[in-house]
Amino acid sequence: HPGLGYGWGNHGHNYYGLYPEFYEFSCPQVQDIVMTILEKAISKEPRMAASLLRLHFHDCFVQGCDASVLLDDSAMIVSEKNSGPNKNSLRGFEVIDEIKARLEEECPHTVSCADILALAARGSTVLSGGPYWQLPLGRRDSRTASLSGSNTNIPPPNSTIQNLITLFKRQGLDEIDLVALSGGHTIGMARCVTFKQRLYNQNGNNQPDETLERTYYYGLKSVCPPSGGDNNISPLDFASPKEFDNTYFKLILWGKGLLTSDQVFLTGNVEKTVELVKSYAKNPALFFDQFAKSMVKMGSMSPLTGFVGEVRENCRRIN
Ligand code: HEM
Ligand SMILES: [Ca+2]
Ligand SMILES: [Ca+2]
């Protein structure tokens, strides 16, 4: 029986009942279909890879990886899409819809939206030049969403290092996962409003963040004026915003992390995260390997399996 995660196909691993061969018989084309649509979307707009990677993260941190993030407002549902971290920020829903529609044609009522998010995150990483990993599957979709969970569990960009460690610990993720997964910021963009405080008033004294490297600071000010321009965007890794590589960590060593939550790995007085940034900056293979491991770990957080939850027909609403 699909979904129970015992015996066949599990090869002795048990990510809470998820296993890579879950769709081997019920939808063997799933991987090809996902990759075809991702290739098209990402070649049209490279940033889409980043947006899809982030969607999986924002799903997993709220009720686990159950596609709660995809539900629209309705009579039954208060959508997570309107939370502080998500509103005017999350992207890629149309690509998920396209994948889902295609999969409903090929393998009706079979592939969950939560698994589509995990597949899209892995595929987006690979297509941006990052690592591939064996992806445990078999997540089912929630019949609920949590706006409050979205507001409280997802770390804000001005977080202190302690705050980041605490919020990740709460999900069962440690400092190694925190630093490696934040390496996802090697691709994609952030809006001015998420880092503006660093430019004009980091500590309530109307001064810039002194950990911000000078020339980078002047460049950011030109993108992000003191008033207005909140939706102007800047790359999280300006050296290679479309390339999944380890330059994110090199930039942090040079004082050129974009968000406070990036730079504090070096400046937050936690020796462990300082060492991790240095080793990932030096050794891209080490970063790739740990990113893959931590993505599997994050992707296995509190999944719905077996007969719990459902496989949505449309990712935006419950059946
Ligand atoms: C450690 C805590 C984290 C914080 C505080 C954080 C914060 C942010 C913020 C503020 C943005 C910009 C949003 C906007 O401008 O609207 C962003 C973008 C992004 N984040 Fe994170 N993030 C964190 C962890 C992660 C993780 C774990 C991943 C994935 C593994 C990730 C992947 C991304 C990606 C790829 C983007 C760019 C999205 C795009 O261009 O559409 N982030 N993040
Ligand atoms: Ca979720
Ligand atoms: Ca990069």
UniProtKB/TrEMBL annotation:
Q: Where does substrate bind?
A: P155
Q: Per the UniProt entry, what are the Gene Ontology biological process annotations, in alphabetical order?
A: hydrogen peroxide catabolic process; response to oxidative stress
Required cofactor(s): Ca(2+); heme b
User: Can you list the disulfide-bonded cysteine pairs?
Assistant: C27-C107, C60-C65, C113-C315, C192-C224
A GO term, aspect molecular function: lactoperoxidase activity
Q: Where in the cell is it found?
A: Secreted
**Which residues does the annotation say bind heme b?**
H185
Q: What does the record's cofactor remark say about binding?
A: Binds 2 calcium ions per subunit. Binds 1 heme b (iron(II)-protoporphyrin IX) group per subunit.
EC number(s) given by UniProt? 1.11.1.7
The cross-references to Pfam families, in alphabetical order and at most eight, read: peroxidase
InterPro entries named in the record = Haem_peroxidase (IPR002016), Haem_peroxidase_sf (IPR010255), Peroxidase_pln (IPR000823), Peroxidases_AS (IPR019794), Peroxidases_heam-ligand_BS (IPR019793), Secretory_peroxidase (IPR033905)
| Site feature (Transition state stabilizer) residues | R54
Chain sites annotated for binding Ca(2+) 1: D59, V62, G64, D66, S68, E80
- Identify which residues the record assigns to the active site: H58
Annotated Plant heme peroxidase family profile domain ranges read 17-319
Identify the GO cellular component terms for this protein.
Answer: extracellular region
Q: What class of enzyme is it?
A: oxidoreductase
Q: Which family does it belong to?
A: Belongs to the peroxidase family. Ascorbate peroxidase subfamily.
What does the protein in this record do?
A: Removal of H(2)O(2), oxidation of toxic reductants, biosynthesis and degradation of lignin, suberization, auxin catabolism, response to environmental stresses such as wounding, pathogen attack and oxidative stress.
Q: Which PANTHER family match?
A: PEROXIDASE 72-RELATED, PEROXIDASE 9
Query: What is the protein's name according to its record?
Result: Peroxidase
Organism per entry: Dillenia turbinata
Output the lineage of the source organism.
Eukaryota, Viridiplantae, Streptophyta, Embryophyta, Tracheophyta
